[in-house]
Batch of 4 targets.
Target 1
Amino acid sequence: MNETDYSLAGRGAIITGANQGLGRAIAEHFVRAGASVLLTARDERLLKQVQDELGRSAKPSQKVLIHRGDVSNRESCQAAVDHAARELPDISILVNNAGIYGPKGPLEEVNWDEWQRAIEINLFGTVHMFRAVIPLMKERRYGKIINLSGGGATAPLPRISAYAASKAAVVRLTDTLAEELREWKIDVNAIAPGALNTRLLDEVISAGPEKVGKAFYERSLKQRKEGGAPLEKGASLATFLAARESDGITGRLISAVWDDWKNLPSRRERIAGSDVYTLRRIVPKDRGME
């Protein structure tokens, strides 16, 4: 099944960090699939540009709204959801895309305020949006919540510790909330979009090998040269997870690049009874070391 086969017609979606990069790409795919959207980010000028561009391709029945806000602020998140609840037809989708790398360098040397700020945006921002939107989804007994993970969630990321810690926490929050919300038919999943050539990559290269480490810096240079993972892959996976075809698939961390996610519906029951696409502790017997 192609991404264009997934319909979001009649659905309302809130997308954070939607003024550039992957958030913007997800918004484009959602509008193309028929959804009405509320896009939120801190830069209102960029938001208005995205609104104008997407508005030209939207159907008369669709709305493309913007809300300037900061996900690290609880009141700002509630205001965004209240705005969406007033204007959008059916708040059934939330995409927690907003995120930053935070400071780069050894933990004991980085600016502590910047380290905390990364946690506030990446983790607390996700929690604030959860708390604001869950009551609406519970009323409807249906919803789709999609969180953005990153490389730091599944492997060590030396010298970018705030990002790694916050993204690992987002993945554990994902499968925890998936269980809390299962009886309301609210699916909660996380996306690993791959190594993207976005502003985060530019930050790493600008920081240099002294801050991020020689190996990571050289991988980043190679990634920029080779193009990185296409934004379209992550946006297509988000569209699938927002559509009815993925109903019942929940509590998973899915790679847009490496996983055969288009065929997950045919394996729904088998996946539900397993721990595939999750973060779990590996014990000796898992590696033949009993």
Target 2
Amino acid sequence: MKTDAQLKKDVSAELEWEPAINVSQVGVSVKDGVVTLSGHLDTYAQKYATERAVQRVQGVRAVALELDVKLEPGHKRSDSEIAIAAETALKWHSMVPADRIQLKVERGWITLRGEVDWDYQRQNAEKALRPLLGVVGVSNGITLKVSTTPSNVASRIREAFARHAEREAKHVEVGVNGSVVTLRGTVDSWAERSAAYGAAWAAPGISSVVNEIKVQ
């Protein structure tokens, strides 16, 4: 197991390795495997890239984001300009049913509403908006349409996760209550935790996933 000092060194190196991040704007502290990031970033896309970079590092148990977005003058846009750009981005995304999604922009923060069939559609809607100029954050309130959950959905989720990380799948418990899936257990990395979460969301009829998996 890595010490906090080793983990901080690895996280800092990963942030320096990621070209989309200005590391001079990010402070890193680590305690008991929990990484805290602080600072001010120029774009929301940089904030997301920073979070993802830290999650790739082996040994990270959790991430606390104390980052905010302070737009450079050249990146600032009015809410109406952001709304128009966001609507266009959704319409041009082939994996997003734009006609089923509504959005609101307030002080650069986009809030999404609507109902779609699959989690990948919900995630792609948010993904399409992150790099837009003027955006300081995205709240994804899109819900999934209620559908029938197969009786064998728990075993299908386990099989899907095993295809991604066979050894770690043995340490993850999948509980299903109606359309809600609860994941419990321990894995070795944040990436494996995310793989289990993604496998659960890919199952048909699922409306919510509670991820209680811990990174050891």
Target 3
Amino acid sequence: MKPAKFQYHRPETVAEAAALLHELGDEAKLIGGGQSLLPIMNMRLAEPSHLVDVAAVPELRTCTLTGTGAVYGGATTHMMIEDELVPDVTRGLMPQAATGIGYRAIRTRGTLGGSLAHSDSSAEWPTVLSALDATVHAVSTRGLRRIPVRDLLVGFFTTTLEEDELIASVEVPRLASRTRWGLYKQARKPGEFAESLAVVLRSEDSDQLWLGAARDVPVRLHAVESLIADRPTDTLTAADLLEAVEEDTGTEGHTRQLHAVAAHRALRASRREETHV
């Protein structure tokens, strides 16, 4: 199928894009790489009258290092992160996550801001950026609004963005040198959306475990964190995590097993010297 008829707009600045969204209201959809929106339009599940294409807005392709991390433009592509064409302040975590997204053609066009705005918890960026405590900078004609990613994502395909706001950039804190990370993605085949996606951040003070694809938003595994707090990782098995995973996610049976295995393998990955999966 082909999409319904629409009018195409190609703003040159963030301010121009925000003005278009304000003017056009709910008749408009923002498009960056189009890797999520265009298939939906082709199936006639979305029929916007206007498309506002921000892929070529220079401000949205920049990356600025700060004293605490980096600010990535909303149209930064997965490929730019994978190939480290932009600075990496996560000691390999974000590039590793980017390599698992779709296929090379998808990573070349798909964008960081687009993935967050799409809000699919089986995708990489919602879970990874929740774990990293990243913050979205949302812009509208009213000004700039800072939204923690953990507050941005409120449901499947649902965010706290207003209809006239766009994600101008994403602020990611620098990962501390002593923080070890682990990432594990379970999918039916490489490049597909995750059936389970586990991210682990371990430091001397605390552990954080986040899980994607278990609910409609990323889930922090508090019960699993409590379980592993006083136990050496190398003594744990996936079976040891089952009850805690069920408590955190509400899943049972095969799905619970799948998430327990993903969490366990992410924990094991965090023990590796180079912290790469």
Target 4
Amino acid sequence: MNRRIRPPAVAGSFYPDDPTALAAAVDAFLGPAPTGEAPPKAIIAPHAGYIYSGPIAGSAYGRLRPVRNVVTRVVLIGPAHRVPVAGLAVSGADAFATPLGDVPIDGAARTAALALPAVEVSDEAHAREHSLEVHLPFLQRVLARFAILPLVVGDAEPDEVVAVLERLWGGPETCIVASTDLSHYHDHATAAAHDRRTAEAIVARAVARIGDRDACGARSVRGLLEVARRRGLGVRLVDLRSSGDTAGPQDRVVGYGAFTVG
């Protein structure tokens, strides 16, 4: 039987398409695992082009180094940018490809998610979506062997996102990655103040204070934070910057935050 592979959509634009260059770039973004800090159950990280958000994403992914041989399943959840989705959409593919190789889809996790009424299969929603793809090379460099369940979130209700995450939460073998950027296209000073308020709300798990304009992946983040609240897990801010701090102009920036949950 032929395997169905979802090819990379943004290799060569959002991140390098040469495997050696890509591995080197990701490794440069990854910091060492901090000492005296328990590995997170989940992370929140951005999904822009690596020259803009790579250092911020790397600061979160570095925290997964201690569980390199423990985590074998990653639930990857992020916003739909290109194709409308009523609730949440999984891919029908067998694997997602990057220049670093193929990442298998966890079929059992997909079946479990599809048992929920808000979840559907939509290869169209995944075909050109970057919000999940850009995380894969980080995972490939940090974890040893793992499968993913990629979930694109559209107009899902809060309880629908929570239900999916609760069903797939698992144990130490499962890590949750919520993909989001923060504010969009303010000047640097305005964005910094705006994103600081959003970061404070995320750390406080104050779901009601995080609006759709505060983070493009707000629905994913709010769902994760609600599950964290129910399970008594704290949230820590790891990094908070914008494209104006990394590689872009100051007059029209996109904000990025990295957080750990555990």
